[in-house]
Amino acid sequence: MSKYDDEAVAGAVGGAVEPARVRQLWHLLEPLHAVLYYAPEVFEEAAALGYDTKERWPSYFPLRAVPLGPVGAGRVASAFYSFSPRMVAEHIDSAWAVADPDAVLAARLRGIDRAYRAILGDRVDGPELAEAAALARRAADAANTAGRPLAAANAALEWPEAPHLQLWQAATILREHRGDGHIAALLVAGLDPVESLVSFAAIGAASVERFASRGWSAAEWESARERLTARGLVDEKGGATDAGRDLRHRVEHQTDQLAGTPWQLLGAKGTDRLVDLLGDFWVAVLSSGLLPSETTLGIGKV
After folding, report:
1. 169, 168, 180: which is closest to 144 by C-alpha?
2. Which of 38, 92, 158, 269 sits 20 to 30 Å CA-CA off 10?
């Protein structure tokens, strides 16, 4: 707590936070985290370590998985869930021979530092960002990471001193906390990794072409569609049935519920303030043009 301003979170009392607010906070924080996978400054840091940066995947996998340590493809595929294990193995099997985890962790913070300074300019050192970082860090510190491997691994890292890096790290912990919970919701719904994508595409969360970036073959996609059709969740044309839409609605609602705990500490007052503070930074990241207009997360679509 000594590394950030206690006054920034003073008066933020705990209390119920509605699922809609939890989802809004995810929408605001996700782009702040996702800069890691698209900013040229991060690619430069990854290339300096020896990673191929002609496309984003060779650096994406080590940059996201690195808090887990030098683990193999099986562990990473389990935690990432919707990626084809073949695709994970293609990039993880050699990742730690290129650079050890400590070097990757340092490189990703250097890259985020440079990227945030390029995107946000003088606002990096402003009081609004420091206050947002304090609130987001408080929520991240409150996240229960039991049964959430990616959230737990990121939460175990030391906090950087600079407020803008604290904001990024908090956003990362909170998005991985949500993602781990989302996998739990998919498991409860009986959706395996490729079925989770087929069912999501069926409700229009993103195009089939966008989901193809996860590495599944056409045969695997078709087999999953057939399984979902047999369950009455997808029709013969690949669109969601009423039952399919209901199931995905339950998955998303349960994900919001499971992601809500960190925000209860801040309560309505604290989360309202954080939403107000994050707006300008969210706009700046989206206006940078770095992030794709369509993603596999379905933000704004579900």
Report:
1. 180
2. 158
Q: What is the pLDDT of residue 205?
A: 80
- Give the C-alpha distances (Å, rounded to integers) separating 16 from 5, 141, 265: 24, 18, 9
3-state secondary structure the chain: CCCCCHHHHCCCCCCCCCHHHHHHHHHHHHHHHHHHHCCHHHHHHHHHHCCCCCCCHHHHHHHHHHHHCCCCHHHHHHHHCCCCHHHHHHHHCCHHHHCCHHHHHHHHHHHHHHHHHHHHHHHHHCHHHHHHHHHHHHHHHCCCCCCCHHHHHHHCCCCCCCHHHHHHHHHHHHHHHHHHHHHHHHHHCCCCHHHHHHHHHHCCCCCHHHHHHHCCCHHHHHHHHHHHHHCCCECCCCCECHHHHHHHHHHHHHHHHHCCHHHHCCHHHHHHHHHHHHHHHHHHHHHCCCCCCCCCCCCCCC
- Can you tell me which residue has the tokens 């990626």? 83
* Angle at alpha carbon of residue 122, lines to 293 and 118, rounded to 5°: 40
User: Do 275 and 24 form a contact (C-beta atoms < 8 A)?
Assistant: yes
Note the pLDDT tens digit of each residue in 118-167.
999 999 999 999 999 999 999 999 999 999 999 999 999 999 999 999 99
The whole-number average pLDDT for the span 227-232 is 98
CA dihedral 131, 133, 162, 8 (to 10 degrees): 30
Cβ(58)–Cβ(43) below 8 Å:
no
- pLDDT, tens only, 25-52: 999 999 999 999 999 999 999 999 999 9
